Write a sequence for this structure.
């Protein structure tokens, strides 16, 4: 299988600087979970956050939809907090929902899914934390 390499930091920073709408796939209502903390931090930076969680319409004040295809407007980026074995379906949903970028959080790794997303033209970052790695790049822009 071919190797997957993340985009260069400068490219990631430019992408984030142009993104406004972020879908958080697998966002938890538990304030102690990383997905909630990341969503709250992105919200404080001015991103429009939508939770992607099939079992609710709202996650602690953030609107929620059951899947990426159900977003009222396509997100600029989907930040994914799901088990690696679900990433193939997330990629399918992102492609069908016209989501141009995917960020697979630290530990969320499926090289085949990431390569398939990139081959479909999506911007893909894998196995990095958007809070720790992405936000500083955005602030450097």
């Amino acid at each position: 299988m071919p190797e997957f390499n993340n985009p260069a930091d400068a490219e990631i920073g430019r992408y984030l600087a142009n993104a406004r709408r972020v879908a958080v796939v697998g966002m938890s209502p538990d304030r102690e979970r990383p997905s909630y903390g990341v969503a709250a931090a992105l919200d404080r930076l001015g991103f429009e956050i939508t939770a992607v969680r099939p079992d609710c319409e709202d996650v602690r004040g953030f609107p929620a939809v059951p899947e990426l295809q159900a977003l009222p407007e396509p997100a600029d980026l989907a930040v994914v907090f799901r088990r690696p074995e679900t990433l193939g379906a997330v990629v399918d949903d992102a492609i069908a929902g016209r989501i141009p970028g995917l960020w697979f959080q630290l530990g969320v790794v499926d090289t085949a899914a990431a390569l398939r997303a990139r081959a479909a033209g999506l911007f893909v970052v894998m196995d990095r934390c958007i809070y720790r790695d992405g936000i500083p790049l955005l602030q450097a822009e």
